[in-house]
Amino acid sequence: MISIQHLSKSYTSKEEIVVGVDDVSLEIQGGEMFGVVGYSGAGKSTLLRCMNILERPTSGKVTVDGIDLMSLSSKELREARQSIGMIFQGFHLAMSKTVVENVSFALKASGVGRIERKERAEELLNLVGLSDKANHYPAQLSGGQKQRVSIARALANNPKVLLCDEATSALDPNTTQSILQLLKKINHELGLTIVLITHEMEVVKEICHRCAVMEDGKVIEEGNTYDIFAAPKHQVTQKFIQTVLDFTIPEVLLEKCKGTIVKMKFTGESAEEAVVSDLLQEHNIRGNILHGKVDYIQEQPLGTFVMELTGDEHEVRQALQSLHTTLAEVEVLKDGRSVGSIMA
Amino acid sequence: MVDQLVQLWPELSNSFLETLIMVGIGLTVALLLGLPLGILLFVTDRELFLENKWVKGGTGVIVNLVRSIPFIILLVFLFPFTDFLLGTTTGPVAASVSLSVAAIPFYARIVESAARDIDRGVIEAAIACGASPWLIIKDMILPEIKPALISGLTITAISLIGFSAMAGTIGGGGIGDLAIRYGYYRYDNFVMFTTVILLIVMVQGIQYMGDIVAKSVKKS
């Protein structure tokens, strides 16, 4: 649906060239929810704004639904933009227009007649659950309601793509959830391709099928959300994952423990099996859980546990061996005998 | 005192009418030409949807040029133009020419600065909707700045009353002319106070009305 090839965007300011996006290539499939994650200044917002030429890339190619956006005349670009909806962190609603007028504006842009505009606007407000606020002004609405209006506006012309620029960053956790559910519903019911950029890993975990991580204008990691969460490769990605799945054990506790402390990651099917209890029985050792959680990402379980293993030194060693063969990731945080040294 | 007032009445009402004509024409022209000019200044600015540094630069220079000439000098400077246009340089209509020329850039700058106050994001959202520049101007920018446009007209009207007094002294007529002729040349304090009071009432009235209208169109 969206194909980005070798896209770069740089700005010239005071004889200095600032690179916003640096040679990014991405393929986003139709009907997919794709997340772009990164710290502020990573270039994710610029990348998103290149997808409807709100910012014109310095070089590279952007194709949306088979149309090369860079080659269009300004009139053709306006038409193409009508099938690319966009919502923003700051909602960007016209304060002098009522809710229904704000939605109608997008319809006006595509030349829809007055009577049809009214019908369609009502239909859209119904979709986002704001039928009763049609004649309110944005100033009378809460943040979540404003974002719903802007979603209705973005969907007005039956777009194929919805671009979300930090759409939930200004909202409280509850409202964020409800907006995410709405996006999920839209994606599901209308088959809309949704690209969203965010610095909140929680958002990606919640709704994105795939995601890309950006740093310094480059995509440093890309893949299925589950895979990224299960095995983040890049340091920045790991940091992001840590914001959602943090398994740091306090130093004091690490020192107190006598046994071998091991961090185990269960992915896919292994998360559903009784790996741990089998292990303890088989090797006749004792296990004490220090930290642990099973997360469901895209309806697949991802479990992380930190355990202290105590018992015969030889048995513990063997248990670790067998863990290595069954699990995706096993990390020994502390060896039972010599504190501080890490053995694989 | 009543006698004096009755005696003065015909001339006073005539002057009042002349001032109204001058301010009215100036204001109308400001609205008709200053508004589009202000919008032009705004939309051709950097990072806006009709960005054009030559148009923006050129228009900006002309606007500043007119605004930097003191009005009394602009009046005299425009005599040949007024003469060419109307065949005369006296009377309120003739004075309206230079008042209009002064009012256009004045109002244009007010419109421009009002438009600048719009959240850029709102305009960006309109662009992302695929709206044409004309639709964005007509249906997004103008409604958003409507209250500011009206209070801007109020400011312009009040400035025009001040300017019209100057225009009056060199043949334009109006209340200012009356005040100078009687008050300054004949030391007739009664006429002078009357005209000053009339001007005060006029300005207060315009401000009051402008505020009411601006408030009534303000939504949200």
From TrEMBL, chain A:
<keyword id="KW-0813">Transport</keyword>
<dbReference type="InterPro" id="IPR041701">
    <property type="entry name" value="MetN_ABC"/>
</dbReference>
<dbReference type="InterPro" id="IPR018449">
    <property type="entry name" value="NIL_domain"/>
</dbReference>
<dbReference type="InterPro" id="IPR045865">
    <property type="entry name" value="ACT-like_dom_sf"/>
</dbReference>
<dbReference type="GO" id="GO:0006865">
    <property type="term" value="P:amino acid transport"/>
</dbReference>
<keyword id="KW-0067">ATP-binding</keyword>
<dbReference type="InterPro" id="IPR003593">
    <property type="entry name" value="AAA+_ATPase"/>
</dbReference>
<dbReference type="InterPro" id="IPR017871">
    <property type="entry name" value="ABC_transporter-like_CS"/>
</dbReference>
<keyword id="KW-0029">Amino-acid transport</keyword>
<keyword id="KW-1278">Translocase</keyword>
<keyword id="KW-1003">Cell membrane</keyword>
<dbReference type="GO" id="GO:0005886">
    <property type="term" value="C:plasma membrane"/>
</dbReference>
<dbReference type="GO" id="GO:0005524">
    <property type="term" value="F:ATP binding"/>
</dbReference>
<keyword id="KW-0547">Nucleotide-binding</keyword>
<dbReference type="GO" id="GO:0016887">
    <property type="term" value="F:ATP hydrolysis activity"/>
</dbReference>
<dbReference type="Pfam" id="PF00005">
    <property type="entry name" value="ABC_tran"/>
</dbReference>
<protein>
    <submittedName>
        <fullName>Methionine ABC transporter ATP-binding protein</fullName>
    </submittedName>
</protein>
<dbReference type="Pfam" id="PF09383">
    <property type="entry name" value="NIL"/>
</dbReference>
<dbReference type="InterPro" id="IPR003439">
    <property type="entry name" value="ABC_transporter-like_ATP-bd"/>
</dbReference>
<dbReference type="InterPro" id="IPR050086">
    <property type="entry name" value="MetN_ABC_transporter-like"/>
</dbReference>
<keyword id="KW-0472">Membrane</keyword>
<feature type="domain" description="ABC transporter">
    <location>
        <begin position="2"/>
        <end position="241"/>
    </location>
</feature>
UniProtKB/TrEMBL annotation, chain B:
<dbReference type="Pfam" id="PF00528">
    <property type="entry name" value="BPD_transp_1"/>
</dbReference>
<feature type="transmembrane region" description="Helical">
    <location>
        <begin position="84"/>
        <end position="108"/>
    </location>
</feature>
<keyword id="KW-1003">Cell membrane</keyword>
<dbReference type="InterPro" id="IPR000515">
    <property type="entry name" value="MetI-like"/>
</dbReference>
<dbReference type="InterPro" id="IPR051322">
    <property type="entry name" value="AA_ABC_Transporter_Permease"/>
</dbReference>
<feature type="transmembrane region" description="Helical">
    <location>
        <begin position="190"/>
        <end position="210"/>
    </location>
</feature>
<dbReference type="GO" id="GO:0005886">
    <property type="term" value="C:plasma membrane"/>
</dbReference>
<comment type="similarity">
    <text>Belongs to the binding-protein-dependent transport system permease family. CysTW subfamily.</text>
</comment>
<keyword id="KW-0472">Membrane</keyword>
<feature type="transmembrane region" description="Helical">
    <location>
        <begin position="148"/>
        <end position="170"/>
    </location>
</feature>
<dbReference type="InterPro" id="IPR035906">
    <property type="entry name" value="MetI-like_sf"/>
</dbReference>
<keyword id="KW-0812">Transmembrane</keyword>
<feature type="transmembrane region" description="Helical">
    <location>
        <begin position="55"/>
        <end position="78"/>
    </location>
</feature>
<feature type="domain" description="ABC transmembrane type-1">
    <location>
        <begin position="16"/>
        <end position="208"/>
    </location>
</feature>
<protein>
    <submittedName>
        <fullName>Methionine ABC transporter permease</fullName>
    </submittedName>
</protein>
<keyword id="KW-1133">Transmembrane helix</keyword>
<feature type="transmembrane region" description="Helical">
    <location>
        <begin position="20"/>
        <end position="43"/>
    </location>
</feature>
<dbReference type="GO" id="GO:0048473">
    <property type="term" value="P:D-methionine transmembrane transport"/>
</dbReference>
<keyword id="KW-0813">Transport</keyword>
